Each structure stands twice: as structure tokens, then as C-alpha cells.
Amino acid sequence: MAKSLQAELLAILRKYELAGELTKRKEITNIKEFPERQLSRLIKFTYAKQTYYVLYDTSAGDDVQVVMDHIRLDVPDVEGNLIRNPLEGSIKAYGMPHMSKDVYLLTKKVIKIRLDQELVRRYPEFSRSTIQKYIKNGDVHVNGEPAKSSKQDVTENDDIALVPPVREDTSDKELPILYLDDNVIVVNKPAGVLTHSKGALNDEFTVADFFRRYTTNALDSSRPGIVHRLDRDTSGVIIGARNDETALLLKKQFSERTTKKQYAAVVIGVPKLEEALIDLPISRNPSVPSTFRVDSKGKEAITSYKMIKTNGTKSLLELHPRTGRTHQLRVHMQYINTPIAGDRVYGTQKSADRLCLHAYKLEITIPTSDRKVFTAPVPEYFKELV
User: Fold this and answer.
1) How far apart are the C-alpha atoms of 348 and 53, rounded to whole Å?
2) Burial environment of residue 76 by CB neighbours within 10 A (0 to 12, 13 to 18, 19 or more)
3) How far apart are CA 331 and CA 340, in angstroms?
4) Number of domains in the chain
5) pLDDT band for position 200 (50/70/90)?
6) Is 302 helix (H, G, I), strand (E, B) or coil?
7) Does residue 169 belong to any structural domain of this protein?
8) What's the rounded Cα separation, in Å, for the pair 24 and 13?
């Protein structure tokens, strides 16, 4: 049936002098037949990157308005132009005799659209930000060529191929488990491991991937079991929920600040005071939106610190965040002129082989238990630096 319909549509294109004798049936693609009506029949198809509608009709009488009205019964918002009948001496300006009926050929108006918007239309399972990452990553081709940018113009007739990268199998990767029961899992996150991916485009192992093996919470998301997070470059204690009820309990404690967190950090220099409370609000830096800064109009951010050891060049501190703002500890340490060693954003990366920030201790209430304290030993590297 498909081949015979292709042949029929090709014959119509030839009558309108839009296709030649060398044109092949397979060049007619994306055929869609609409339900046949009493007096008309409509077919949509693509040829030479152009969308066409052919209307078989016995009552339009070559009246353009009637033809368009009949087409819009099936495609209400269609815009385009009817192709004129090229036959000399024909009494019809648009209609073409074919198989005992008149046919009318409409070429759909080509509307240009941004590539990322067209891909979101074609692949609604992906967010626009994820689509943009695929484009930037070289995973999108337009008419056989690598996509230039998310903003480039395309049409619905362009051949656009999206081939997401094959995700690495991480089923054999492990994280050090500090504690495990029926409700929670606690691990010692290494520096360099993401807590969770930010979207569909992520082919690296995350804490969330590891938690997925142990939880029934949020399995349809990229954050199964996740109730709080540590920056990629920060190591240490992170707790996960193994079911929905526990997730609610733990998240509530983090949001209400009833948890107690203690970090170990090596900073460059020596703080003026051996022990102090830093109460400085923080906001996003408008000039570099991925970073934060001390700002009187920002959100409340409170950190207390205590110096444990120093060699005059670097110091080992104990940090207690009273609030949980993004990058809070790093911003506060930078502000008092003792940036955390190895901080490539708020300090000098060359000062250490890694970001010297470690979530050493977490105190929290878990189901069927009183308060629990989980600890991850301070890396020996920190001690060596001071």
C-alpha cells in the first residue's frame, strides 16, 4: 500500500511539474493519510525537504477559499500556498484532474525555528537545557553535518539526528559505606565524585547512582535517595534515604537546620583569630552566576571555625556551618583572606592537589534511633600539608 501511494503522489508531483521522470518513489517520505471525508481526502507528505498536502476533492470547484477550508478541517492552523496548474489551456487555475477527481496541491509555508526548540518538540522527554548540552557535545547532526549551535535555524523538514552518548556501565563501582540499615545509607564520598547529575546528560558515576542500588526513593529521577549534597570537590560524610518516609524525615532536619555538620579544611595562611563566628550573608555573583559572594542583600550565612594546627603557611581548621548556603564555607574562608587550599574557584588551585574541604562529621536523627553521629576520617593529606 505504501509503495502504491508513493507512486500515486509521485504522479501528482510530475503533473504539477515538481518532479521529473528520474525522481524515485522513495523520495516521497513522511506520508500521513487523514480520515477520508464524504467529499474529500487529504494526504500529507514530504518531498525535497518540503511538506505538501494533496487534497482530493469533488466539490471545491477550484475555489481557493473552499479548498483551504477543506484542508483546514484536518489541519486547522496550516499556512501555505496552492500550486498553480501548469497545463496550458486548463480551465482550472489550481485543480488537476487525477483518477476521475480534482486534486489540489498545497506547499506548506516553511517556518524557521531554533534548533534546540525543534529538538524539544521532537524529543519531549528531554529538557531544553539537556538538548543544548547534547548540541554542544556534538551529539546532534543537521542534514548530515554537525550542529553549529543551539540557535541555528532549522525547519521541520530538516533531517535532524540526535544520538545521545552511551552511558558508561557503573554497576561495578563502589563507595565506602560507613553505615547501613533498613532506612539509611551513609557513605564517605571521595573528592571528584558528583552527588547527583544535573540532567539527563551525564555519563559519570555519582553518589546517586550508588544509592539507587539501595533505595526505593525517587527512582524515577536523577536523585534517588539524595537528601542533601556535597560539592563535587568536597569529600566526606553524605547520608541517603532508603525509602520515602525516611527521605521526608531527613530532608526536614536539613531544612530546619537541626542537623549538626562539622568540616575539616586546610586554608592558605593563618586566620587572625584562632576561633571566631562569621555571620556574613551570601548571594549569587551576577558577573559569574555559577559562583557566590558576600553580599549585604544576600541570604543569611553563618559559619564558626576553630584553628586546630598551623605551620605559618597553611592552617588546619574545624568548620561548623550553622546554615547551608551553596559554597558557604568556601566563600567565607575567602572573605577573611584564608581561602581553602586547592579551591580553583575561590582561591588558587595550585596551592594543593585537591580542594581541601572534608565533611568530617554529621549528627542527625534517623528512624528507630536517637541521634546518630557519623564520621569520616580526615584525609592524611590534610595533615601532611600543615
Assistant:
1) 63
2) exposed
3) 9
4) 3
5) low
6) strand
7) no
8) 11
DSSP reduced 3-state for 9: helix
Q: Is 216 found in the same domain as 134?
A: no
In this structure, which amino acid lies at residue 245? E
The set of cell numbers assigned to 34 is 487523514
Residue 172 lies in a domain: no
Residue 234 pLDDT class (50, 70, 90 cuts): very high
| Cell digits of residue 47 | 518531498
- Catalytic residues, which ones? 231
* Beta-ladder partners of 43: 33, 54
Residue 210 carries which DSSP code?
H
Given pLDDT bands bounded at 50, 70 and 90, which one contains residue 137? confident
Q: How far is CA 178 from CA 97, 187, 208, 262, 359, in A?
A: 80, 5, 16, 16, 13
- Half-sphere exposure (CA, 13 Å, Cβ side) for 304? 7
What predicted TM-score, i.e. pTM, was given to this entire model?
0.64
Of 70, 89, 108, which marks where a domain is finished? 108
Q: How far is CA 332 from the centre of its chain?
A: 30
Instruction: Give domain status of residue 167, yes or no.
Output: no
Q: Which domain holds residue 303?
A: 177-385
CATH number at residue 146: 3.10.290.10
Looking at the fold, whether 194 and 283 belong to one and the same domain comes out as yes
CATH number of the domain where residue 85 is located? 3.30.200
